[in-house]
Amino acid sequence: MRILYTNFHQADGGGHTTYVLSLVRALRAAHDIVVAAPAGSRLFLEASGMPGVRVVPMEFKGGLLSAWPQIRRMRALLKIERFDLVHVNGAADHRLCMLASTGLRGGRPAIVYTQHNSRSGRSLGAALRARLATDRVICVSEHTRRGLMRSPYAGCGLRTVKNGVDVDYFTPATPAQKALARERWLPPSQTGCLVVGSNAGTAAYKNWPDMLEAVAMLPGALRRRIVVLIAGEPPDEDQLRCVASLGMQDRVIFVGLLGDVRPFLAALDLGFVLSSRVETISFACREMMSMGLPVVVSNVAGLPENVEDGVDGWVVPACAPAAVSEVLREALREPEALEVMGEAARARALAEFGLPRFVAQTQAVYQEALDLPQPSRLWPIGWFALGAATFWVQDLLI
Asked: How many CB atoms lie within 10 A of CB 76?
């Protein structure tokens, strides 16, 4: 099969990039794969280093005039390569592929779209993409699927395929590894603390200050027994002011962006993802659970689909630091229970989160898309009209 993967993110790309790279690694030996992504992005750089994978620099954002050369480049790529299937991963790249493939002689390739967030998908742009350039939709959580059932994508064959992680790569740390990790990340005075952390990043919607507020709510003696580690982009000035306002400067450590998060996760006793909006299933949550960590998640989007409350983690209301604070009290009161919950988290990861299951389910969706009747062509005059109309309403598309 000849597959084109696209992603619009300019820099790290977070879960979108991890998702595409997981599929490319798994399928590159059996299929002819091309990746189109912005030059300099993490996806572009990492895919460029994979044997057998071809990478094409491509920008996906901008208005009609600025995007027109990219549309022509994509159209030329589709004509030359004659892909069987294009897998798009966001509104911007989906839109460009729609415009580039419309009216292709012999018909366009099958197009599979993955919905990576919890937005409604009910814009005019979504309606155009669903009607003209979508054969199947992959939803990364049941929450996502339920949301899209009320969108123009409802008739595009919604399929739930939850993100997979490499459970052989993300394995529980040994006691020696945990000790080394704590020496690396923590000052000596804090190596014996309960270490709570997250590799979900520092974006505002991740709502990580709720964990700091939860720690700040504890009595001084308990607060001094906890340290919070956070991996991701360094906090900005507003975020640092938030930390200072909570009096948490000495209880939180920001470690920055990491190429390999495993040594960071090895230092933790308890993970957290407390997103308040625009969330799906969370690679970070699944990576932490695969490493044998119980995780505190908010009841937002697909996060609760990862955790059985009280068994392998906790589910708390969104934007409720008091509820998180109660979890911390429980963890401090019964630290031995965290080990039992961590074992349950690892068992769940082995049973449900593995890459072979994720890849097999994704390939099944590909086959469904390929088996559909070939879509009819839209003639060039319709193609130009569609392009103009789409960019006139671009604010509604993304």
From this structure: 11
